[in-house]
Amino acid sequence: MCELKARRPPASSQNPDRESPSGGRQEIYSPVVLIVSLFLRVAYAFLYLLSTTLTSRSMRHTALRHLERRNGEVKPEAHLRSLVAVGLLIVLWLIDYGWSLGYRLYLIIPILSTSFCVVSILYFFLAVQTYLVEIYPMYAASGITASIVVRSIFVLTAPLTATHLFAKLGIGWGNTLLGVLAAVMVTPATLWLPKYGEGIRMTTRFMPKFSFRTVWWF
Question: Which spans are transmembrane here (predicted)?
Answer without folding.
Answer: 28-50, 78-99, 105-126, 138-160, 172-193
